[in-house]
Each structure stands twice: as C-alpha cells, then as structure tokens.
Amino acid sequence: MPLAPIAFLTTLLHVFLAVRLLPALAQATGAWPVFALLLLLSAVTMPLPFLRRLPLPDVLRAPVRWVGLLAMGWFSSVFVLAVLRDIGLLSAWAVTRLADLSMDRASWEQGSALAVMALATADSLVGLFFARRTPPVRRVEVPIAGLPARLAGFTIAQLSDLHVGPTIRASYIARIVEEVNRLGADMVAITGDLVDGSVAELRAHVAPLARLRARHGTFVVTGNHEYYAGAHAWIDELRRLGLKVLLNEHVVLQTRSVHGAQTDEEILDSALLVAGVTDYTAGHFDAAHESDPQEALRDAPPMVATRILLAHQPRSAPAAAEAGFQLQLSGHTHGGQFFPWNLFVPLQQPFTAGLHRLQDMWVYVSRGTGYWGPPKRLGAPSEITLVTLRRADD
C-alpha cells in the first residue's frame, strides 16, 4: 500500500487523540503542552522510517528513524488506551443514568486522560527494555516417536525474525551470535525475516552472522521480508557469508562420525534430514520460489526417517505434515510482539508461539529473536531457542 494514504490515516488518528485527550489534560495538569508536543512529534515522525530515502544529512537519518519507530509504539498504546477510555466513560455514564447515580464526569475524564498518557509512556519504556535486551535462551525438548538413539540429544539453535534494519544493527546481531556460539548447538536454523532493507544498506550489519558456529553449520530459509527487500540478492549474500540457504530442498546430516566398518543400519541410524522451504507467500514474488514442502523432499533417501522442516510461517504446517515431516520450526508471528497485535495473529496463523502438535508432526513457533517496527515487546519475549530432540519413550 502507498505510504501517503497511510500517513493521512495516521494523521487523522492523531487528530482524534488530540480532540479526545488534550482538553481533559489541559484541565488536569499544567504539563499538557508536553503531551501535545508528543502527539505532534508522533504524527510527524511516524511515516519517516518507511521512506526509502530520507531527505536528511546522513548523521540525522538513523536518529530520525529511531524517533519515528519509538513514536509508532507509543502511539499504538495511546490509541488503544484512548479507545478503551471512551468505552469506559460511556459505560460509566450509562450505569449512572440507569441507576440514577451522580457522576463527576470532569474528574473522570481528567483522571482517565492522565492515566492513558502515563500508561502508554510506561509500557513503551518497559517494552523498549525487553526489545533491546539480549534475547534469553528458551530451551525446548521435542519428543519424537521412533527417533534413533544416536539422534537423541541433537540440538538446534533457532533464530527467527531478526529484522536487521533501522534499529537492529551489527552490535545487536553480534551479541546474539556470541550467545548462540556459547550454546554449542549441533546446528543453527534461521527461520526467515532476517532483513528489512537492501544488501547495499545492510551488508555490514548482517556480516556478524558469518561468525555463527555449529557442528553442522547454519541453515537459512526465506521469510516474506526477504522478498520485500530483494530475496535473490540476499540469498547470494548469505551464501557468500557461508550460510546454507535451503530453497525447497534438503540436506542429509551424518550426525555421528563414521570410522571403520559400519553397517548400513548404523549409518542411517545417525542420519538426519533437514529441509527448508521458501516463504509461504514467495510464489507471489517469484513463481519459481513457490513454497513446496513436498518438493523439498525430492530424491530424499527413503530410509532416513527423521525429517525436520524449516518454514518461516506456521501456516506451512498442514502441507509439511502431509509430506511426512516430524518437526517444523517456524517464526513470523513474533508471538504478537505487543498488545493488541497479539489478538490478530490467530486470524492468519494456526499457531502463535510455542510447541504444538499437528497430526503426527510437532510445530515449534519462535516468538522471534528481533522485532519488527517499534522497538517494543510486551507479553511476547524475544528468544534464542535451543531445541533438543528426545525419544518419545524416554
């Protein structure tokens, strides 16, 4: 959607907030001009991070984008709380009328307007802290029926939705790389939405990913944001960094060293198939990238029964289960990131976060390692996920 209509709509919403809140704030506190200035700053700066080229000196572009994205998170909370305030005031008025009670409407309006501004500002500051901290490690054990004994204990460090872009830069990625390397995982999986910008803009900020260390390497699948940013250029760049990008294809990992005479059964017992599909919507951008879990298994050795799929969106799961995978690792949802957006995720995706069962397949949905848009997380903590495979009968 073009930016101009969105900017016009958000301006109208800011006008609505000014009309609904500023008169009550002017009666309640002498600090109301501060809130008026914040609303004005929010209205002006919110669209700026989404302009491809800001007509500003280089030194100002990053700070202005930061301000615009912080404003977006703050405005979102102010708007939701202001709507809830109006519903509450209307409900209180109706109850007092029906019960023939008195109501000091002016006091209620002033107190609730102050509460809206105070709560929105507080939750934005708390959300900023949780967004910008180094994501904690979330340890998840997945019990897989029929898992060969030699694969029990195999570990996968999952990163998802890093969204390297205006506010997530090289220093943030370097912290994550250090944390992952400390885990000593058998493999690293990056399940899409790695970037929000072109290779030319973000090459240096993605570069720390080349330092990821795991016994079997790092595997990547595309997310929808890679296609917004130029997927083919990013695929080439990630491969240049030494990451293995899986585009509706698979690899077979030999997870135990094979020395001397080994039976076919022993070799197969320690083999793990790891497949990756393009984003669920990739076919809209490039027909050759149509997401296809079945195609990802083309020419797969039939005797390698343990099969894991990396798929950015959880809604790839029905096709993955049909194809015969035991586990799908996904992201995309951010766990909702913050209220009220968490309420809308289930309208599009079958799972929002955590470990779920679909037919005979497990689906794990990461809440994301970074964030999109506002640097704000509430109720949906970011994570570095350490997945450990276990035998279902252990």
UniProtKB/TrEMBL annotation:
InterPro entries for this protein: Calcineurin-like_PHP, Metallo-depent_PP-like, Metallophosphoesterase_sf
GO biological process, one term: lipid A biosynthetic process
Keywords carried by this UniProt record: Hydrolase, Membrane, Metal-binding, Transmembrane, Transmembrane helix
Entries under SUPFAM superfamilies matching the protein: Metallo-dependent phosphatases
A cellular-component GO term for this protein: membrane
Name under which the protein is recorded: Calcineurin-like phosphoesterase domain-containing protein
PANTHER family documented for this protein: PHOSPHODIESTERASE YAEI, TRANSMEMBRANE PROTEIN WITH METALLOPHOSPHOESTERASE DOMAIN-RELATED
Source taxon at top rank: Bacteria
Pfam families given in the database record: Metallophos (PF00149)
Residue ranges occupied by any Calcineurin-like phosphoesterase domain in the UniProt entry: 155-335
Statement: the UniProt record of this protein carries the keyword Cytoplasm: no
Source organism: Pseudacidovorax intermedius
MF-aspect GO terms: metal ion binding; UDP-2,3-diacylglucosamine hydrolase activity
Residue ranges of the TM segments: 34-51, 63-84
